[in-house]
Write a structure and sequence with these properties.
By secondary structure, the protein is of the alpha+beta class. The chain is 53% helix and 11% strand. The chain is built from 18 helices and ten strands. Strands 1, 2, 3, 4, 5, 6, 7 and 8 form an eight-stranded antiparallel β-sheet that branches. The protein has a two-stranded antiparallel ribbon with strand order 9-10. A hairpin with a 5-residue loop joins strand 9 and strand 10. The longest helix has 45 residues. It starts with a helix and ends with a helix.
């Protein structure tokens, strides 16, 4: 073997071991063995579902280059039987070398002959090399056609070249298998992450599509940012691995809600159901005690009628406040007045119409959660960080824990759990925060509010960015421009 060929042989091994992109690996394998053997055409088949599938096909004379981008070559698979020379090589685990396809009686070569008849190409010399992994498992086949000498004339494949191609095919099979294993592990991990995310969403009907929607928005938004950067002559902002890491963080950002109590997550109103029932029974007791007082002559009929009207109005006020998204000043004042009213019970003691904890719940200004309940809810990011700290993420997913558990941090330092601000918050976290707030605003499955119209939600995002300083103004502007929720 010439020194140049030997050097090429060594370089092939290095390049194959370094490639981890599956489609580029397959293309590199075929290009390497074609260059090593100085042949005109080649095909790489992989064994899938009991048949050999065309993955990469190149023919320099015919200017045919298909499959390098992972697309289907459009050819039917070769069945794994002894009627095809490619299948035969894999079945018998041997290299098949043919000096002249058109004058060979040892093998069935009707396939390349039909190809020649259809295209006008002339197939002469050929080698078919099986690809097997280290355990001897069938991986695929390399088929090389028309070796050329230094003058460009078609010649048989030399013994030393065949040996070199066999060596490369063996290493290639192992590399393909390793990449497949890596992809399988990666796909398994992604599936597990989505299952865990779905488990969070399935715990409550009020969070059912949140993470999935965020992942969809995020996928489109990243593509938008990349396309915009490239249109401006800059490189893509997010590589494939970078995008995957960010979307993985989105899928895991609410994983801490697995341990958030359902009575907090599912709280549709300020009062707990048992509290509302207790108030209803208490109002009925107030009316009954009034009727008893009236029968005893301690209360007039007019006063009893007024009492019935006032208790009914009190219940209407409580129901209105209980389900309101925001508590205005006049409602708060009416609640305060109600909290000061008392009635005399059967024990002869004075009792309040509203108990202290009931008034505290009803007087929540925004949403349905009390301060203690809100702290419990906000604690999901701490739990997210704790749970993700137990996962040994690969290097290309090494930021997932940080990004996922920081999605409630705000640029002005008003967020939680750590009150991070400014440059301490990475761009990836800023993106996740925008996605999270947007979906929370427009979602129509939240217990404490109806879904907000898109344009109103965008107005709130803009205010949070430009007036309150909570969100990244430029990213928020680009998010609005992207329309990635459509």
């Amino acid at each position: 073997m010439k020194e140049s060929k030997f050097r090429m042989f060594l370089e092939v091994g290095v390049s194959l071991s370094a490639e981890r992109n599956y489609n580029r690996l397959l293309e590199r394998i075929l290009l390497c063995v074609m260059e090593l053997s100085n042949c005109d055409a080649g095909t790489l088949y992989l064994l899938e579902d009991g048949a050999l599938h065309f993955k990469i096909m190149r023919n320099n004379t015919m200017n045919t280059y298909t499959g390098g981008d992972g697309s289907d070559c459009g050819l039917p698979p070769v069945q794994l039987n002894r009627e095809s020379v490619c299948a035969l090589a894999l079945l018998d685990d041997k290299t098949i070398r043919v000096e002249d396809v058109w004058h060979c009686s040892e093998y069935d070569l009707t396939g390349p002959m039909r190809y020649d008849a259809m295209t006008g190409y002339h197939t002469q010399s050929m080698i078919v090399v099986p690809m097997r992994n280290r355990e001897g498992g069938k991986v695929g086949v390399l088929q090389l056609i028309n070796a050329q000498d230094d003058s460009g004339n078609i010649c048989p494949f030399e013994d030393e070249i065949v040996l070199a191609v066999e060596s490369v095919a063996s290493q290639a099979a192992i590399t393909v298998q390793n990449v497949r294993y890596t992809n399988q592990i990666r796909n398994l991990f992604h599936s597990f992450v989505k299952v865990m995310s779905s488990a969070v969403d399935e715990r409550t009907p009020y969070n059912g599509s949140h993470t999935r929607h965020m992942a969809q928005y995020g996928d489109r938004f990243i593509d938008f940012l990349n396309a915009r950067a490239q249109a401006e002559g800059r490189g893509a902002l997010f590589s494939g691995n970078h995008k995957e890491e960010l979307l993985m963080s989105v899928w895991l950002h609410d994983i801490g809600k697995l341990v958030t109590p359902l009575e907090v997550m599912n709280k549709m109103a300020r009062l707990l159901p048992e509290q509302r029932t207790a108030i209803r029974h208490r109002m009925e007791r107030v009316r009954l005690m009034g009727e008893i007082s009236c029968l005893r002559g301690e209360m007039t009929e007019e006063a009893l009628s007024a009492l019935r009207r006032e208790t009914a109005e009190a219940e209407q006020l409580i129901d209105a406040v209980n389900a309101a998204g925001f508590l205005p000043d006049e409602k708060l004042a009416a609640l305060e007045a109600l909290a000061h009213r008392t009635y005399r019970g059967p024990d002869g003691k004075e009792h309040p119409w509203l108990r202290g904890e009931e008034y505290a719940m009803l007087s929540i200004r925004k949403g349905t959660l009390s301060e203690s309940e809100r702290r419990i809810m906000e604690g999901h990011v701490v739990v997210t960080d704790k749970l993700l700290s137990q996962i040994e993420f690969s290097e290309d997913l090494s930021h997932v824990r940080e990004w996922a558990s920081s999605h409630h941090e705000m640029l002005n330092g008003s967020g939680y759990p750590n009150g991070r601000s400014g440059d301490d918050i990475p761009i990836e976290v800023r993106i996740i925060t925008i996605l999270d707030i947007f979906d929370a605003l427009v979602a129509d499955d939240r217990p404490y509010k109806p879904g907000m119209p898109i344009e109103k939600a965008l107005g709130i995002l803009t205010a949070m960015a430009e007036k309150e300083g909570k969100l990244d103004p430029e990213l928020t502007r680009l998010f609005l421009e992207s329309r990635c929720w459509e």
